[in-house]
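Regression test case RT-17, inverse folding.

Input:
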């Protein structure tokens, strides 16, 4: 038996913070680095913007395809093997990426890395802390995202610097080393002593009615489930597409080079700040009001870009709204199904959304790439993301109204929308 000092922590905050370290590296290496790689790979392989974007779309599709199997293995108590071998898988994939010299190889390596995403990023980490801290999983999820939220802040400038020093191939090898020398041992040490599989589903949240139905099918007849599904699919599509194109989008807007790197980096800091606000004040805020208005920051940030003409002031407002909003949005998406449909069946219900979510996340970066052209840049892509974000927020609001007030809530929501529309037409 190893000495006690080497035993993994059992407290919520310590465990979650340790688990967030591989999240920082994983999100930085897999999600935010891709935007920096697009330019060099397009030049070397002769790819268009849509063709290079397709690689990341394939990765997200592979992630979604593998997510159900990963979830079942975690539920069976194999969380240590899942995330440890996932880190090894990602490390080997990044090494292979450093030697890519063909379009087929480029696509193949990102399919490989997509499978690694399913085993190492937020979804498996959230499942693990939910199993270990079922009575306080919302707080555990907030904690685990603190370091993960800094991924863009740390890795966009870091990898940009490495690429300037060593080139993109050696930089990928350095990222692989972080996976193998940091993420792999942390997962192997931290995730010992996984809880046994639960024979019965957990109890509902305090504000969620108890349900004793053994079947999840009854919830498929509830409008709230489908509305929340639409909310998650659309918002995840937007938040998947935007980081992939962020660096090129800012560069084409004519912003100075320091802004092109600095704006995405600031987003990471603000994401953590938003989560810190939730961590400190969540017990003092009305959870339903928070869930309603936090997602609205996403379309608000995109509207600033559409209307601001890429003035530096508009970029500052964008980074403020998007950074804080996206940081808290992760928590809303992670808890909404439990709050408005069923906490007892949340795993299965979220699992049913795995495929449509994967398709949306996979398609979104590619669609934005298709909408790009040398003449107009990312203008139409921004409009597409704005409309998708607005539709997603509207779906969440209707879901809340349905769950809390039934038909009366829907009618009240419709009256509010009509009133706002009337005021807008009056120029108020």
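Golden output:
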């Amino acid at each position: 038996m190893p000495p006690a000092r080497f035993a993994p922590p059992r407290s919520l905050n310590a465990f979650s913070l340790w688990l967030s370290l591989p999240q920082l590296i994983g999100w930085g290496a897999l999600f935010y680095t891709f935007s920096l790689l697009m330019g060099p790979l397009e030049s070397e392989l002769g790819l268009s913007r849509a063709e290079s974007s397709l690689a990341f779309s394939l990765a997200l599709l592979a992630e979604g395809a593998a997510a159900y199997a990963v979830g079942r293995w975690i539920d069976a108590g194999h969380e240590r093997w899942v995330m440890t071998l996932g880190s090894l898988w990602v490390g080997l994939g990044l090494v292979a990426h450093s030697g890519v010299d063909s379009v087929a190889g480029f696509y193949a390596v990102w399919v490989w890395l997509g499978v690694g995403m399913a085993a190492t990023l937020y979804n498996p980490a959230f499942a693990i802390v939910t199993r270990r801290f079922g009575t306080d999983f919302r707080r555990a999820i907030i904690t685990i995202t603190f370091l993960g939220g800094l991924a863009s802040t740390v890795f966009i400038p870091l990898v940009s610097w490495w690429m300037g020093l060593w080139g993109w191939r050696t930089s990928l090898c350095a990222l692989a080393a972080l996976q193998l020398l940091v993420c792999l041992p942390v997962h192997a040490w931290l995730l010992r002593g996984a809880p046994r599989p639960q024979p019965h589903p957990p109890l509902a949240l305090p504000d969620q009615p108890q349900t004793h139905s053994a079947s999840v099918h009854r919830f498929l007849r509830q409008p709230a489930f489908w509305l929340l599904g639409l909310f998650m699919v659309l918002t995840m599509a937007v938040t998947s597409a935007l980081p992939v194109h962020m660096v090129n989008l800012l560069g084409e807007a004519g912003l100075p080079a320091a802004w092109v790197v600095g704006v995405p980096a600031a987003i990471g800091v603000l994401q953590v700040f938003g989560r810190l606000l939730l961590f400190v004040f969540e017990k003092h805020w009305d959870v339903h009001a928070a869930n309603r208005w936090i997602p609205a920051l996403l379309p608000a940030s995109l509207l600033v870009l559409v209307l601001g003409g890429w003035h530096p002031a508009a970029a500052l407002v964008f980074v403020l709204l998007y950074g804080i909003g996206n940081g808290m949005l992760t928590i809303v998406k992670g808890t909404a199904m439990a709050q408005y449909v069923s906490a007892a069946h949340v795993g299965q219900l979220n699992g049913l959304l795995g495929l449509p979510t994967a398709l949306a996340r996979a398609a979104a970066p590619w669609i934005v790439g298709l909408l790009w052209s040398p003449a107009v840049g990312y203008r139409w892509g921004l409009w597409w993301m704005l409309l998708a974000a607005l539709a997603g927020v509207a779906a969440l609001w209707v879901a809340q109204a349905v769950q809390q007030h039934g038909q009366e809530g829907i009618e009240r929501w419709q009256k509010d929308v009509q009133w706002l529309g009337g005021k807008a037409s009056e120029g108020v």
